Amino acid sequence: MYEVECDLQPVREYSTSSKLSPVRFGRYHGSNFWEISGYGAKKWVVAVKIRVNDGDMVDATIEELAAACVAYLNKPPPRQKYGKRQRYPKYGLFELHKASLMESRGKKYISALLITRARKSAFFWGKGKRI
Question: Is the whole-model pTM more than 0.70?
Answer without folding.
Answer: yes
